[in-house]
Amino acid sequence: MANEPHETNLREELVAQYRHVERLGLNELSSGNLSVRFGEGMLISPAGAKAENITEDSIVLASLDGRWQGARKPSSEWRMHAAVYQRHEEAAAVVHTHSDHCVALASNLMALPGFHYLVGTFGGDDVPCVPYSTFGTRQLADDAAAALTNRTACLLGNHGMIARGRNLKNAVNLALRLEIMCRQYLLARQLGEPARLTATEWEEFFAQVRRNQYGRNG
User: Fold this and answer.
1) Taking the model in full, what pTM does it have?
2) 4: Cβ–Cβ under 8 A, 6 or more apart, which residues?
3) Which pLDDT tens digit goes with each residue over 129-187?
4) Which residues of 178-204 are buried (b: 16+ CB within 10 A; e: fewer)?
5) What is the C-alpha to C-alpha distance for residues 88 and 209, in angstroms, rounded to an integer?
6) 29: left (phi over 0), alpha (psi -120 to 50) or beta
7) What is the Cα–Cα distance from 103 to 43, expressed in whole angstroms?
8) pLDDT tens-digit profile of 47-95?
């Protein structure tokens, strides 16, 4: 398939970031998937992709209703990516991972609470967790897209996490930040339930963010 330069660049970035996400330990084997918005559709990692076999040519051009082009099928989670793009015009990239500490919280159907001010970099005083649904289903897609209405990331019950970003690097950084925050929360819980910021403290935090444009995560 002949590519426009912009599409070529996006395919190259998708491959590079897919490999980067695995190097970071956020995904292993063929778990997780990445996409970028492209025109009226998206470019998404193929089903069964691994860091060692993903290539620019294997990236799948797909419409938001599931039609696709190329030699490989899109990720089985294409509906979740598509639902995020359909519901959130500002979303330019989506990253879904099965990172360890996100899975640990999600497997207990736990939201990440506002125990640390950096939780606020996802848009609010917590990171919600949606109920379990079978992978690849419309229910999972709808629940995840709804949870991202006022957040840039959420946990997926008994599954993993998903983040939306203004570009692919930003979405990957959000996925990494969430894994770090979940790890730190689980460490803190070993000493007891951590204190949480108060409503007043969150107001002060978000006012500071607005003044300093802090916490943009790349």
Assistant:
1) 0.94
2) none
3) 999 999 999 999 999 999 999 999 999 999 999 999 999 999 999 999 999 999 999 99
4) bbebbbbbeeeeeeeeeeebeeeebee
5) 22
6) left
7) 26
8) 999 999 999 999 999 999 999 987 899 999 999 999 999 999 999 999 9
Judge whether 165 and 148 are in contact, CB under 8 Å.
Answer: no
CB atoms within 10 A of CB 141: 22
**186 — alpha (psi -120 to 50), left (phi > 0) or beta?**
alpha
Q: Which one of 77, 179, 203, 204 is the catalytic residue?
A: 77
- The H-or-E segment that residue 95 falls in is strand 93-97
Q: Is 82 exposed, middle or buried (0-12, 13-18, 19+ CB in 10 A)?
A: buried
- Per DSSP, the residues of 26-56 read S--TT--EEEEEETTEEEEPBTT--TTT--T
The second-level CATH assignment, the architecture, of 5-212 is 3-Layer(aba) Sandwich (3.40)
Q: How far apart, in whole angstroms, are the C-alpha atoms of residue 114 and residue 123? A: 11
90 catalytic residue (yes or no): no
Q: Look up residue 121 and give its DSSP letter.
A: G
Contact present, 54 and 71 (Cβ < 8 Å): no
Report the DSSP pairing between strands 129-130 and 153-156.
parallel
